[in-house]
Design a protein that fits this description.
By secondary structure, this protein is an alpha+beta fold. Helix content is 22%, strand content 33%. A hairpin with a 2-residue loop joins strand 14 (271-273) and strand 15.
């Protein structure tokens, strides 16, 4: 039912991508886009003795040379530059990212020729992840003004010892005049078997606690929980612990709506493994964005950015996301994940 409601609404909205505006039944609307992208091991070529980055060095297992690093930067920048521009020419207002080594790789990314004019600014904190990968946040200062940010530790234990993983990056800011809250996540991977489900459940509990704290203060708070969750929309972490619903009409029941669950049930995915699609890359939103009474910017539609140039054309991973590496073999691709993004609209 939900998809038909979306198509019905879309039929009455005409976009002007050049101006970032549209019309619904003759009323002017403003449209913006935001997204999340797992950049698949965006490492520089410098040895950091505090983390395990040896495989991504010129002499490492993956022969990670400056030439390959520069090609990776150009590839990632081009993808980001293209997300959502068919409806919003100015591109993403903000973007959460994961699998980045440090702030420097983001600094190198945002000055790439395809992104430089957008003047993306960076929010980043080093995480305690043993492999050195972090999450980050890019924003267009013409659209978004940060008010505060901080890393929130995700603490898990395994066999009595802490398993270090990525922090949750919390950002509060102004999207035009709307105060929004963003949590950028990269929950623990499935490597290690069923025990890791508890680690991702803890990630969901952490985010839900933050959501509840914000909603208790401002019931209509505009909240975005985004990231590579390493779980599908139907998994326990998201359904039972984050308590996201798949029908926008039910958002008031739990306060959180996941537009990607319907996509997943229809066979869409953002990453693939052993000939099966998963949809780990999600943007889950609060009732302050998705509810019928939402004021200011409100949810319009969600997408997976899976253009043909991002699809592996041949070989073992044909039709998968066109990745940078297959094992240690360099593929000169993009990422093993497709980006996810969504549109917000408001009356002007």
């Amino acid at each position: 039912m939900y998809k038909f409601l979306t198509l019905f609404l879309f039929s009455f909205i005409v976009f002007n991508a050049e101006q970032g505006t549209s019309q619904k039944n003759g009323k002017p609307l403003k449209i913006v886009s935001l997204g999340f992208y797992n950049l698949e091991n965006l490492f520089d070529t410098v040895d950091d003795t505090l983390i395990n980055d040896e495989e991504f060095l010129p002499q490492g297992a993956r022969a990670w040379t400056d030439e390959r690093y520069q090609e990776k930067l150009a590839n990632m920048a081009y993808v980001i530059s293209q997300i959502g521009i068919q409806d919003v020419k100015s591109g993403l207002s903000f973007l959460g990212v994961s699998e980045i080594e440090n702030r420097k790789v983001l600094e190198d990314l945002v000055i790439q020729p395809t992104l430089k004019e957008r003047n993306y600014q960076i929010i980043h904190y080093d995480s305690p992840d043993a492999r050195g990968v972090d999450v980050g946040f890019l924003y267009n200062p013409k659209h978004f003004i940060p008010l505060m940010s901080r890393p929130v530790p995700l603490i898990n234990f395994e066999n009595g010892r802490r398993r270090y993983t990525r922090d949750v990056l919390y950002v509060k800011g102004l999207l035009d005049d709307d105060t929004v809250h963003v949590m950028v996540n990269h929950w623990p991977s499935r490597g290690g078997g069923p025990i890791t489900a508890n680690h991702r459940n803890n990630g969901a509990i952490l985010c839900r606690n933050i959501v509840d704290s914000l909603i208790n203060i401002v019931p209509d708070a505009k909240i975005f929980v985004m990231g590579d969750l390493n779980d599908d929309p139907t998994d326990e972490s998201i359904k039972s612990y984050l308590r996201a619903v798949d029908d926008i009409r039910d958002v008031n029941k739990t306060g959180m709506f996941n537009p990607y669950e319907d996509m997943f049930r229809r066979g869409q995915g953002s990453n693939a493994y052993r000939d099966a699609w998963s949809l780990f890359d999600q943007i889950i939103i609060s009732k302050g964005v998705a509810g019928k009474k939402a004021k200011g910017f409100r949810y319009f539609k969600a997408n997976i950015f899976n253009k043909q140039f991002l699809v592996q054309p041949t070989g073992q991973y044909k039709d998968y996301p066109f990745r940078t590496f297959s094992g240690d073999s360099y593929q000169s691709g993009y990422s093993d994940h497709f980006p996810s993004y969504l549109y917000l609209i408001k009356e002007i």
